[in-house]
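REQUEST FORM: STRUCTURE PREDICTION
Request ID: SP-0412
Submitted by: Lab K.M.
Chain count: 1
Length (residues): 283
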Amino acid sequence: MPPKMRVRLSLRSERASAMRARRACESQEQTTMRLSQVAQRSVLTQASQSQEERACCLAGKAAYKASLRSRLKNAQRSRMNAQAAANPSASWASETYHQRLLRNVRNAAATANSKAIETLDRRRDRQSRDAAAKATARAAETPLRGSVRNATNAATTSRSWGAETFDRRRDRQSLDADATATARAAETLLRRSVRNATNAATICQVEGACQSKDAAATARSRESETELQWATCNARNAAATSAATRAAEKSFLLSPPSLSPLSPPLSLPLSPSLSRSPLSLSL
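STATUS: Completed
RESULT:
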C-alpha cells in the first residue's frame, strides 16, 4: 500500500474511533437529537438535488469504494470486511430500542431512495447478484443454521404481523398482490411451468412429511396404550360409527327421494300366485 494511502487510512480510522467513543458516552437525548439533525440534513440535501445529481453522487461514491477495494489484496479486503462487520455488530448490541428503530427507519429511507433512482438494468443486476449471494449462502449453511434461520424469520414475521394495524395489513396485502400480479404477467411459459412444478413438489413433500409424522405419532400411541385403552378406543369408534349410520338412515327416512312427474311408474313385482292364475287377475 502506498504511504499516503496508509496515512490516510490511519487518520480515517483514528477519526472513526474518536467518533465512536463520543457516541458511546452520549445520552439518549443527545443521540436522538443527533440522529434527527442527520435526518434533516439528508432530507434537505436530497430535496435540493435532482435525480441526476443524486445518481452521479451515488455512482461516484460506489466507484471510489470499488477503486479502494480493488487496490487491496484478498487478505486485506477480508480483514476490512470483518472489521466493518464487527464494528456495527458491537454498536448494535449496545444500542437501545429507540436507536434501533431510528436506524431501521434511516436505512429503509436510504434503501428506498437508492431503489427509486436506479435504472432497470441496475435493478436486474442487483436482483441477480442478491439471488446468487443468497443461493451461495443457503448452499453453504448447515441444517441446524437453516432451522434456526427459518425459526427466526417465522418469529420476526409473526411479531411484525401481530403489531401491524388493519390499514397497514391492507396496504401490505395490496402491495403483495400487485407484485405477484406483475411477476406473473412478466414471466414466460417455461418459468410458469417450472414454478408450478416446484410448488407441486413442495406441496407433495410437505404433505408426505405431515402424513409420515401423523402415522408415526399414531403408531407410537398405539404401541404405548394398554389393552384396556385399546378396547375402549375400539368401543368408542364402533359407537361413533353406529350413531353415524343411524343418523344417515333417519335422515333418509324423514326425507325420501321425491319422484318427478316425468319418471316412469313403479312396477311392483307380482306374487307367484297372482302371476300364475288369470282368475285372480280378473277378480
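NOTES: Confidence is low (pLDDT under 50) at residues 270-283.
Reviewed by: T.R.
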